[in-house]
């Protein structure tokens, strides 16, 4: 009997603790969040946008979204404010919701693919109009799930394969383009002619960015030494930090890196006064004194097109790409770091060259 | 290869290996106490994550790294106590209850982070301490005696653990309870109290391991430990349940990681081998574990809940 009470007591303490946290803090957080033990954080689909002003049916005194709101779900592997991969998509969906009457649900932190698959199926089952599986590791799950929900549109990336399914879109970033521009900037600012890269695993978006960056450095300074290290992990912050330390030892005075584990590397760069170039999201706030610029993804360029096509009745079968030309990739400078005007001019010329095709990133 | 044997690279490799070993050392020493008393705690990584977030958040709000470490201690003690209640009093299956603690720590640390912090912001790090005289020794001084304060604390915990296990009455009780709880009980040793104490020590050190990791990295992120707590459990087996062995395991893991990173940076390990090389620390540890496992036996009562009269 005594044991039973202890178990009940432990359960009550755990539930109370979760409730206290869920109901407290987050002054700037207007969404409802719940969590499960796997670390998956789910935003309940309570966040809705206001109906456009020109709508003929005014929502009068109700705060709920109109019934015809376009329902979008995003499933992503890391935290929605990771200043990297996941945040770039969450930001994009929020931007699109400014012009489309939209209801958004986000499940982030699903680094376990089975958890993501369960969330994807769940949203499809709930009748969401568009389910975005934001992670190249989710492709296998989509192949199984999408055929079961022919009326639901799915989008996934970064990838270039729709599996021949009529209700699957794919999207990817030409991250080599922004990477190339960052490489040119890095080479122009490096005094030691040694630049380092902290990469996760040599695949997909990360590989494309790193290859583009290296090409940019060597395009600007063929004699430069580009040291590329893939740690073998997307999430090992300690290893990323030590990799940055190794680059510092090797004489690198400019670093870059891709994926969410780079936050550790940025700290080491700041400690050693090494310049940093970010990608996927603006990373200036991680270390305002050393972040020069970030290649920022504006997936809204793609998402707005997908939403329009789904609304028009086309549920998939197309691959979209964001790049410098369509504004899906933007080089954002850190206002806290003053880049010499001639270096900015070089970057601008490089962007123009990539867009008009006179410069090849080599990828 | 000659690039590797330069002074700067060797110093960086050793110093990096030591840094990588520190969280593992704290956590595996703590786990060792529990296992020596017969309790396997698989929840180390969860407590590390909670300690990491607690330490990070305290430093973010106060700029005081020692307060951050203290918060890690407090969180560790609380979860050590919870582990003890589940494993000792409620006699829950140790593997399953540990996984429960791990999953709770993984999810709850991230939930707290999302609610209270959001976007990762850098924090202050531990102060670097150059040990007088010793830090001036050429090469060795830079490798070993110019670290952050928490590194020295971690390595000081090794002889302290040896002393507690081997030279104190409490240590004798831990060993007795881990090997033969019935005999210890018949001699008047409270198996419950000893196991509570070791699990609280284990929780405390896991909390410290997490806080030390976050403060050293100056950041927190979802799943920051990246399963280091599970590696720490393996290192207890690797170290044959002895503090020195555990330290050897943590250092081996740290050094192999550090050496691989340096070899990659210098281009000695080609990029095409990068993924295979990333597995090197795990492979070396498993191989060493296989060799050690044949020579040493775990505490006889490990994973067995104690019930008087059975």
Features of this protein?
heterodimer, A: 363 residues, alpha/beta, 2 domains, eight-stranded mixed beta sheet, six-stranded mixed beta sheet, B: 310 residues, mainly alpha, ABC transporter involved in vitamin B12 uptake, BtuC, two-stranded antiparallel ribbon, globular
Overview of the molecule:
The complex is a heterodimer of chains A (363) and B (310). Chain A is α/β, with parallel strands linked by helices and 363 residues long. Chain A folds into 2 domains: 31-49 and 67-174 and 299-322, Response regulator (Rossmann fold, 3-Layer(aba) Sandwich); 175-297 and 327-356, Rossmann fold (3-Layer(aba) Sandwich). Chain A has helices spanning 2-23, 85-96, 113-125, 139-145, 175-189, 204-220, 237-249, 263-272, 300-311, 341-356, and strands at 33-35, 41-48, 70-75, 102-108, 130-134, 153-157, 168-173, 194-199, 225-230, 254-257, 275-280, 291-297, 319-322, 329-333. An 8-stranded mixed β-sheet of chain A has the order 1-2-4-3-5-6-7-13, with helices on both faces. The model of chain A is unreliable at 25-66 (pLDDT under 50). Chain B has one domain (7-122, 132-295): ABC transporter involved in vitamin B12 uptake, BtuC (Orthogonal Bundle). In chain B, α1 runs antiparallel to α9 (191-217), α2 runs parallel beside α4 (94-116) and α2 (44-62) crosses α10 (228-238). The relative contact order of chain B is 0.21. The mean pLDDT of chain B is 91.
